[in-house]
Write a structure and sequence with these properties.
single chain; 229 residues; Rossmann fold; 20% strand
Length: 229
């Protein structure tokens, strides 16, 4: 059963390469889930590779909005991120509602590798977030290759694609529609469902008006692009 683009699974994992926008999607998905379900939703940051701990930066704001946030802690001696034991507990607890922002680089993705064999396949959805305006996912073949590489590392089989075609705040309706069509073709080739198409609020209304058959997920933008900071 789905409501507003949401799966009935208690664990929803978003993964994808750098620049896909998976962190933004993860935040919005967790907040929407919390809003319509009125239950505790955990947002787990497992993006260990990017130098910007973005969910960590927003932790207080997100907790004020009702989310329970778990972020990596830094080892004072090595300055490397350490995974809190709470993450394992949450992921293996079938009752906990958890959204995971998983690092797109293989180094970050390996974090889930050790847990994958212990996670029941029917308790989670693993959604591959695609922004076709990034170099490695600009073609159907590139999307398929990137997905295969990340599946090998995480030992998780993707259960769907999420289209997030964007060029930052300059994204137009045409950008979203062209990207959606390409990512839809990739999903068909991979024999996976296209779960929903993302667009920032306002633009999402235009997409829905132009393509009413699409499942459109509107995004509030919580994260500034690093080069725009």
């Amino acid at each position: 059963m789905r409501k507003g683009g949401h799966s009935s699974a208690r664990k929803v994992i978003f993964f994808g390469p750098y620049g896909s926008g998976k962190t933004e999607v993860s935040i919005n998905y967790a907040l929407a889930w919390r809003s319509w379900s009125q239950r505790q939703v955990w947002l787990v940051d497992l993006d260990l590779v990017t130098p910007f701990f973005r969910i960590r930066e927003l932790r207080r704001r997100l907790e004020a909005l009702g989310l329970s946030v778990v972020v990596p802690e830094l080892d004072a001696a090595s300055e490397l991120p350490v995974i809190p034991p709470r993450v394992t507990t949450l992921l293996l607890d079938p009752a906990s509602a958890v959204v995971v922002d998983l690092g797109g680089d293989p180094t970050g993705a390996r974090v889930l590798g050790s847990l994958a064999a212990r996670m029941r396949g029917d308790t989670y959805q693993a959604y591959f977030v695609v922004n076709n305006y990034r170099p490695f996912t600009a073609t159907v073949e590139g999307i398929a290759d990137c997905l295969r590489r990340l599946e090998q590392v995480t030992r998780l089989a993707a259960t769907g694609l999420v289209a997030n075609p964007h060029l930052g705040p300059d994204t137009t309706l045409g950008d979203v529609l062209r990207g959606q069509e390409l990512i839809q073709r990739a999903a068909a080739q991979l024999r996976l469902p296209l779960v929903f198409t993302c667009a920032r609020k306002g633009l999402a209304d235009q997409v829905k008006a132009y393509r009413p058959e699409l499942e459109v997920f509107p995004l509030d933008l919580y994260i500034g692009m690093p080069w725009r900071r």
